[in-house]
Amino acid sequence: MKMQWNKLLSSKRLGSSECLGDGIRTEYYRDYDRIVFSASFRRLARKTQVHPLSFNDHIHNRLTHSIEVSSVGRSLGLAVGLAIKDKLPTDITAVDFASIIQAACVAHDIGNPPFGHAGEYAIRQWFTENENLLNSTLTIAEQNDLKYFEGNAQGLRIVTQLEGHYKDGGLRLTYATLGALIKYPWKSDNKLASEKEKFNVFQSEVDIYSKISEELGLIKLDDERYSRHPLAYLMEAADDICYKILDIEDALELDLLRIEDVIPIFKKLSNAAEFNEINDIGSEFSSRKRIVAYRAKVIDNLIREVVAIFEHNYNDIMEGKFEGDLISKVTGDCQVGIQEIKEMTTDKIFSYRRKIELEVGSYSSIESILSAFITAINQKIDNIATFKSKRILDLMQDDLPSGESTTPYEYYMAITDFVSGMTDNYATFIAKQINGNAK
């Protein structure tokens, strides 16, 4: 059984029966616009990509990373759409692929907390170490949503429920874009969540996930899990290409690496003729200009590699049988180059002393914030709120649920919404306020 493109590219919107095309923008372009104009996307400008609170304005943050990923995703979508055009219905074009993947890519990190992955780990660790503070009414699955907090699942929650349509339904994106956004199509209590330490669905979005999967005609793999949307593989590949290459560019900017260390790796990842063209004239230019030229050739070549891998594995992808990610299937020099980048980032970038120091500090900030807010919400739940706890919760303003039927789980999720939505700067400020260290 194969998935069908006319279902996979559904332009219907979650939470709405209307198609609001204005004759200028397609439904998928409207998705992109809604994401870009959202407050959650805007806050990515002050969230860490790799290097927290960097003083160097050339270093990537989550917003610049997301924009670059969307650019690569658009190119991948266009190239794949053209490569498989004979397999597509006549009313579906390569531009549709490109615009859906571009929209999914620009939203792929929208749920990431402050301080990058360190912030994600800090949230998980706090809830794991303070499990005794959680209300006894929570199910194991609901506890797992907190103890294994995941930025990807938070992203789905943001675009489907939290961000700002004037009615219910979050951003009301098309089903096609939502499908392409879901990289890990399982819940926190699924065994795959433990094995991969990744998942895309909180308990609060289980029904939404099922609705998306059924609308798109995704293949049901078991009682709880559907196959990935084929375009989700391309969204993931765009992210993989960008962070592998652009982490290196940032490291060069911070003098953690020398260009002489990087050029041999980029040679393996490039088309030989294109690489030599740059290499022959490279000595005339600064290191910054040279690395930009090399980077462009590397990305072009990796796009070609990914397109070929998608084509080669097309039937398995469409039948929900393809396992792993596309970039891991590259062969030859490209495979060697990607492994060398992985080793280099581990040895030279992730062990950078200032990065480690700031990440240690970020743990303290997240711990302080969660301790204060969870204590305050527990007092509210138990009807013993103090003046301090009321003032702490007042910081959440409209983000705090107000209904009498609100469950403890819904309160805890609202707090993780609030904390994970903070920028690096705001989280640092609030932690100082809580600890009485504000200036």
UniProtKB/TrEMBL annotation:
Residues 62-244 form the HD domain. It is an enzyme of class 3 (hydrolase). Keywords: Hydrolase. PROSITE patterns: HD. Coiled coil: none annotated. Its EC number is 3.1.5.1. Transmembrane segments: none annotated. InterPro entries: dGTP_triP_hydro_central_sf, dGTP_triphosphohydrolase_C, dGTPase, dGTPase-like, HD/PDEase_dom, HD_domain. GO terms for biological process: dGTP catabolic process. GO terms for molecular function: dGTPase activity. It comes from the Bacteria. This is Putative deoxyguanosinetriphosphate triphosphohydrolase. The lineage of its organism: Bacteria, Pseudomonadati, Pseudomonadota, Gammaproteobacteria, Alteromonadales.
